């Protein structure tokens, strides 16, 4: 928690915008989700690199604490690159909630599929299945990791063309998609 010295609604919106380009490590979250506001700002960041989220129709229900039910009707697949990631072709699936004001909350399922290890003693964050080991960062008190360590021209790589093909999207994994070239070099295991 943090002290609020101004209108809480305006402060909260500012925080959602501050989290664009980052995913929050949320070990209590059952399915990754974000607000449509966060996605709008994040999509503008991706567009600077010639990339965009791929959207699918879904029906996912969420409840935060003892609050009401929030329904997502879309899932966004976000092209992503974490700091120190040596390969391309990572897509992160996130359910989009229109009526919530939240950043991208990475679920425990997503974190498991990436091989995430949160080491608070050494202040490190590891994603073992994609070969990433970085300092543990906090934004507004939340553990967060940048997912936009991209470079101009990345959208022209063959891996992104393959991930854009229509046949690929018939029944995609809901949380994490790692392109085949990545999987051949790393010990990827699905639970």
Give the gist of this structure.
The protein has 191 residues and is an alpha+beta fold. It has helices at 8-18, 36-47, 108-113, 158-163, 180-185; strands at residues 22-25, 33-35, 54-63, 69-80, 90-97, 104-106, 116-119, 124-127, 132-135, 137-139, 142-146, 176-178. It has five helices and twelve strands.
Ordered list of secondary-structure elements with their pairings:
Layout: H1 8-18, E1 22-25, E2 33-35, H2 36-47, E3 54-63, E4 69-80, E5 90-97, E6 104-106, H3 108-113, E7 116-119, E8 124-127, E9 132-135, E10 137-139, E11 142-146, H4 158-163, E12 176-178, H5 180-185
Structure explained in plain terms:
The structure is a single chain. The chain is α+β, with helices and mostly antiparallel strands. The chain is built from five helices and twelve strands. The strands form three sheets. Strands 2, 3, 4, 5 and 12 form a five-stranded mixed sheet that branches. The protein is globular and about 45 Å long. The chain starts with 7 loop residues before the first helix and ends in a 6-residue tail after the last helix. The relative contact order is 0.22. The model is unreliable at 1-6 and 181-191 (pLDDT under 50).
């Amino acid at each position: 928690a943090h002290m609020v010295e101004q209108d809480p609604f305006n402060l909260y919106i500012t925080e959602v915008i501050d989290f664009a380009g980052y995913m929050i490590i949320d070990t209590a979250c059952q399915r990754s989700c974000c607000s449509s506001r966060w996605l709008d700002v994040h999509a503008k960041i991706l567009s600077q690199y010639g990339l965009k989220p791929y959207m699918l129709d879904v029906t996912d229900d969420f409840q935060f604490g003892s609050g009401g039910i929030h329904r997502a009707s879309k899932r966004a697949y976000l092209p992503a690159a974490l700091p120190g990631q040596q390969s391309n072709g990572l897509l992160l699936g996130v359910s989009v909630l229109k009526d919530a004001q939240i950043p991208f909350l990475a679920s425990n399922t997503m974190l498991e599929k990436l091989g995430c290890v949160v080491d608070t003693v050494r202040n490190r964050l590891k994603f073992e299945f994609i070969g990433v080991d970085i300092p543990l960062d906090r934004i507004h008190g939340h553990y967060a990791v940048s997912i936009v360590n991209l470079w101009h021209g990345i959208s022209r790589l063959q891996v992104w063309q393959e991930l854009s093909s229509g046949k690929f999207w018939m029944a995609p994994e809901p949380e994490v998609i790692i392109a085949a070239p990545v999987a051949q070099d790393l010990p990827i295991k699905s639970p």
